[in-house]
C-alpha cells in the first residue's frame, strides 16, 4: 500500500496529465467562441480592422503573381512536348506516304484488270455464244461482272435521326450487324447481286466494324447506307418480312432514331469487283536426312525372310476357301 500523507496538497497528489490530452484540454477550456464574440463586439462598436495601403498593395501583387504562375503552369501542361510533336509529325508523314502508296497500287490494279479483260476478250473472240453466256453468268454470280436489272433498295440513315446534335450514344449508329442482317435477308430472298454504297459483295466479302466506322472489304463507309440488291423484288421483300428484318428496322427507328426504308426499283446498275486473288495450299516437301540411321523392319508374314526365300504364313487352323 502507498501511504498518502494528509498534509500533502491535492495538486501535488494528482498524476501528471498525459501529453495527448493537451489538445482536448485546449478545445474544452479555450474554445473559439470567445474570439468570435470579441470580433462581433468590435464590429458592433464600429471598430473595424483597418488595413494599411501597404498591405493592400502587397495582397494585390501576391494575387497577380499567383495568377500569372497558375496560368503559366496550365499553359505548360497543355502544350505538347517536343518529342510528342515530332512523333506526331512522323506518323502523319507515314500515313500520307502509305495513302499515296495505296492509291498507286489501286491504280495499278485497275490497269492490270483492264489488261486482263482485253486479253480475255481476245482469247474468247472465237468462242461460241454458249461459252460467252456461261462466263457472263458466272461473272455475275461471283461479282466480277457488272450487272443490271430490277430489285430493291434498303436504306439506313443514322445522320441526325431523332437524337440531339450532341448525342454520342453508340446505339444510335448503324452497326455492322445491322447491315449483315439486311444483306442475309436479301440473299435468302434470292438476290443475284448485292452492293453497299457501290461496294459489290462477293463470296469473300466481309462486313466488319472498327470503332464507329463500318468496313466492307476493309473499305470504310459512311452513312446513309444504301443496300442495293438485284433480283425478284417481291421475293426479297417477303424475305425481309419473314426473317423479322422489317420489324428490326422499325425497332431501330423507334428506339435509336435510325431511319430506314425499303423501295422497289425497276432498274439498278451494280458495279463489278476485280477478280479475287486465289491462294493455293501445297504440302511441304519432306527431305530425308542421309546421316540418320536406317530403321530396321522385320519381314511381314508371307514375305521373304533373311535368306531370301518366301516364308509361309502362320498356320491358324482355319481352312482357306477359294
Could you characterize what this model shows?
Residues 88-122 form a coiled coil. Residues 300-310 have a biased composition (Polar residues). Belongs to the UPF0749 family. The chain crosses the membrane at residues 57-77. Residues 287-322 are annotated as: Disordered. This protein has a 5-stranded antiparallel β-sheet, with helices on one face. The protein is 44% helix and 14% strand. The chain has helices at residues 10-13, 22-29, 33-44, 53-78, 82-123, 129-142, 176-188, 233-242, 245-256; strands at 147-157, 193-196, 199-200, 207-210, 213-216, 219-221, 225-230, 259-270. It has a domain at 147-270: Alpha-Beta Plaits (2-Layer Sandwich). The chain is α+β, with helices and mostly antiparallel strands and 322 residues long. The model is unreliable at 161-167 and 300-322 (pLDDT under 50). The longest helix is centred in the first third of the chain and has 42 residues, at 82-123. The radius of gyration is 45 Å and the shape is elongated. It is built from 9 helices and 8 strands.
Beta-strand fraction estimate: 5-15%
Largest sheet: 5 strands, antiparallel
What is the CATH architecture annotation of one domain?
2-Layer Sandwich
* First-residue to last-residue Cα separation: 125 Å
Main sheet: strand order? 3-2-7-1-8
Rg estimate, integer Å = 45 Å
Briefly note the CATH topology name of one domain: Alpha-Beta Plaits
Structural class: alpha+beta
For this structure, what is the CATH homologous superfamily of one domain?
Answer: Protein of unknown function DUF881
Report the total helices.
Answer: 9
